[in-house]
Amino acid sequence: MSEIVVIGAGVGGLAAAVRLAAAGHQVRVFEQAQTAGGKLGVISHEGFVFDTGPSLVTLPDILEDLFAATGVSVRDVLDLQRLDTAAQYRFPDGTVLDMPGELAQIPAAIDAALGAGRGAEWSAFLRRAERMWDLSREMFLESPLTVSAMRRRPPPPLSALGAISPLRSMRGLGRRYLKDERLRMLLDRYATYTGSDPRRAPAALATVPWSEQAYGSWYVAGGLGRIATALQERLDALGGRIEFDTEVTAITTDPSGRVDGISLADGRRISADTVVANADARTVYGSLIRTPTATRMAKRVRTPTPSFSGFVLLLAVDDPPADQPHHQILFAEDYDAEFDALFGRNGGPRPVERPTVYISAPDDPAIVPGPDTGAWFVLVNAPRHDPAAGMDWDAPGLAEDYADRILQIMADRGVDVRARVRHRQILSPAELERRTLTPGGSIYGSSSNGPRAAFLRPGNESRIPGLYLVGGSSHPGGGLPLVMLSGKIVAELIGPAEESVSDA
């Protein structure tokens, strides 16, 4: 039986670990925090339970496939609920769009909110996005970016290049199909799912709104943090182990350059045939492993633009508004100014003066201490914590002042809960960096800025024998569905344990 070490109990690491354990491997996971989940974190305080990371499940078939690979149905371990309204959007002109959770209902809803003919514009765009999705899902998202894998796949038809538009930006594709500025703003938002700028993100990201609207928006009763708990329980049932409060300080290699284990901060050394790193690739190659190959890879992984971070408010709300939607987006008055600030154009990286505000306010009795209370997650896009570049989120007073500004902006846009907040907790990019060990608190690893960005993202199979990468900084990218896919790709690359092969 082969011994596999997984560094990090984030969703990518857990997804790889449970699949490998189900395939007959002996799996040990080492996590520096006290709980599993990584960026899919949970904070509880005075009976309020807050998800601190993803608040929406998309592509539920990926989650279903993951649990099926461990021998159970996802429905047996998680209460997945499809949302009737995916999100409510408030635009700067005061228009409100309640986006249905069913694809067939979307054109009529857009027409009713934005005017006749706007639903047809969005539908035409989605038809193009669907073609892009069909071409890219199996060929790119679900397959490793290795030469051997590419050789095994039949080459895509030349027509595929025209459909995917590799040299066109997401913003450019939107302008081709969408005349209404509000629809363009809606599309721009989907670039933020990968921490990117829609003016530079590739047109292929049009697959994000398509997949969300075609497969629905879902919530897990009790909060999305239960996904990590369920994966941990499956790993336990399959014989895997997780050691918490355990920092990995190095990945070790034998004289041939092959990975042979890890070193821990408590002085222990753990031998392993294979190491799966669910850590930011810049950390893996920049500090955890010291070989000439790692040094070359460290330079490469610094090439892509890092994704931006997020500034989070966790609000315990008394007597929340009765009509508050589950998900709500309050758009910025100037979206381009927001992206300029995030990526440091026209000056260095800086907090956005009047950012788009995202609110998740589930109506879920399992996450609040009693009736007439709400556990709200409020997120705005924010530049990475990078004191060397002049963006120091630990500067005295900055986080508290910015939190006050966000609450004022919410009030300006029609959601005033300042007098209803029982308590609040702030998670700045600096705090996210400390909690997740992600450089700068970058939520998605590297951004998708530029047509080559996806191919600059590190592959799952390292050039260092025995080392594999999972998570948002590696292929196929950030976000809950993609990091689960990264775990699947790694498990398939490693394959079943020898005993499992012979027994079969």
Would you give an account of this structure?
Belongs to the carotenoid/retinoid oxidoreductase family. One of its GO terms (biological process) is carotenoid biosynthetic process. It is a single chain. This protein has 504 residues and is an alpha/beta fold. The chain has three domains: 3-40 and 60-79 and 222-304 and 457-503, 3-Layer(bba) Sandwich (FAD/NAD(P)-binding domain); 120-216, no CATH class; 305-441, no CATH class. Helices cover 37% and strands 19% of the residues. The protein contains 19 helices and 19 strands. It has a seven-stranded mixed beta sheet with strand order 7-6-15-16-17-14-18. Strands 9-2-1-13-19 form a five-stranded parallel beta sheet, covered by helices on one side. β6 (85-90) and β7 form a beta hairpin. α12 runs antiparallel to α13. The protein is globular. Mean pLDDT is 92; it is low at 500-504.
Q: What Rg, in angstroms, do the CA atoms define?
A: 22 Å
CATH third-level topology of the largest domain: FAD/NAD(P)-binding domain
Q: State the distance separating the first and last CA atoms.
A: 15 Å
Mean pLDDT: 92
User: What is the CATH class designation of the largest domain?
Assistant: Alpha Beta
Number of strands: 19
Enumerate how many helices there are, as a single number: 19
Uncertain spans: 500-504
Count of discrete structural domains = 3
Q: Share of helix among residues?
A: 25-40%
| Estimated structural class | alpha/beta
Overall shape: globular
- Find the CATH superfamily of the largest domain: FAD/NAD(P)-binding domain
Q: What composes the largest sheet?
A: 7 strands, mixed
What is the annotated CATH architecture of the largest domain? 3-Layer(bba) Sandwich
Strand percentage, roughly? 15-25%
Enzyme class: oxidoreductase
Family: Belongs to the carotenoid/retinoid oxidoreductase family.
EC number: 1.-.-.-
GO molecular function, one term: oxidoreductase activity
